[in-house]
Amino acid sequence: MNRSTATNLVLVNLGTPVEPTAASVRAFLHEFLSDPAVVDLPRFLWMPILRGMVLRSRPARVAHQYQSIWTAAGSPLRVATERIASQAQLLAGERLVISSAYRYGEPSIDTVLGRVDAAGTGPIIVTPLFPQDTDATTGTVFRRAREAAARAGVAHRLVERLIPAGAAGYIEALAARARAAFDSAGYEPDHLVVSFHGIPVRYDAREGRRYSRDCDTTFEALLQALGWPRSRATLAYQSKFGPEPWLKPATAALLAELPARGVRRVAVVTPGFVTEGLETLEEIAIRGRDTFVGAGGASLLYIGAVEDHPAFIQALVTLAAD
Q1: pLDDT band for position 315 (50/70/90)?
Q2: Helix and strand numbers, DSSP H then E, in the chain
Q3: Mean pLDDT value across residues 68-95
Q4: Separation CA 136–CA 239 (nearest Å)
Q5: Cα–Cα distances in Å, from 167 out to 71, 191, 316, 317?
Q6: Domains plus CATH for the chain?
Q7: All residues at 6 or more sequence positions from 129 whose CB lies less than 8 Å from its CB, including other chains
Q8: How far apart (Å, rounded) are the C-alpha atoms in residues 252 and 279?
Q9: Please, which of 17, 81, 107, 137 could form a disulfide with 24 given CB 3.0 to 4.6 Å?
Q10: What does the pLDDT look like over 121-154, one tens digit per residue?
Q11: CA contacts within 13 A on the Cβ side of 87
């Protein structure tokens, strides 16, 4: 492979603490919550709150949550992201040079783009691993990529490419994960909750509702792929942070309400997270299950992330090739 003329594909995930300790979580949260795309309050107001309150009280609790999902190989998000990149490289062969990077933490977008041959001629495709488009995820990735590419002298080669919310391979992988979970459990649940990461209502309105529309697109495409009745499914939003109104219904509140509606067995799928992490394994598979069962439900079936499902890997490679 002539690496100077090859097409580079950089797959960017959110990021993760290096280890499940309060110190590591504090460093990660400081970078994450300092990003104006994530918290857009005036800096003079937000930064004292972040440093004086949030980073004092939150890291120890979040570190404990990370400890409940950490594996011998490390952070589930990092392990899965690297596996996605390696499987995509195997499929692409010499057509692409594929790297993984993180918006927060290392290897950062700056680090990865700094390794690209500045004298090369091949395009550098940056793809956020977020199929639903909002400034807090895809937007901040692309901005950072532009800045890093300019510093590395490769801005003229940068290509920004999104994973469409209804991409066929992505939806196929989601549906396959759901079917496999139903088969493994030996039953079909009474109700399917399709849970996306929430954002403030104000953010969604400012962006012309493109995020909530993308969530709707994924939701409807998944139901169609599964042949699942709309009456037995609910789109919800999780991971609320801060006091202002976020998109609803909230996943946690919904799981607490469903048993009273006669739902005994629920399944939850989290399409906005293509890799496992704190928001899936701890927030849904542990706390979400406790909430549902505590409210009188019989069982919560967590449907795993698409990760390196062959259909999703093919979709990524095809996206770059196109």
Answers
A1: very high
A2: 12, 8
A3: 97
A4: 13
A5: 31, 24, 10, 12
A6: 22-67 (no CATH), 168-303 (3.40.50.1400)
A7: 11, 12, 13, 81, 84, 163, 274, 275
A8: 12
A9: 17
A10: 899 999 999 999 999 999 999 999 999 999 999 9
A11: 17
Of the listed ranges 124-133, 187-196, 266-275, 313-322, the least confidently predicted one is 313-322
User: What pLDDT score does 296 carry?
Assistant: 98
234, 176 in Cβ contact below 8 A? no
**Residue 106 pLDDT:** 96
User: CA 200, 134, 116: angle at the middle one, nearest 5?
Assistant: 140
Which among 102, 121, 122 has a CA at the least distance from the CA of 112? 102
Q: Judge whether 126 and 161 are in contact, CB under 8 Å.
A: yes
| Residue 37: other Cβ atoms inside 10 A | 17
Q: Is 236 helix (H, G, I), strand (E, B) or coil?
A: strand
Place of tokens 């529309």: 213
For residue 237, CA distances in Å to 100, 168, 197, 216 come to 27, 23, 5, 12
Place of tokens 């209804």: 166
Token pair for 240? 């609320």
Spatial separation of the C-alpha atoms in residues 322 and 320, rounded to whole Å: 5
Q: Is the pTM of this model over 0.70?
A: yes
Cα end-to-end span (Å), the chain:
19
Rounded (to 5) percent helix, strand, coil in the chain: 50, 15, 30
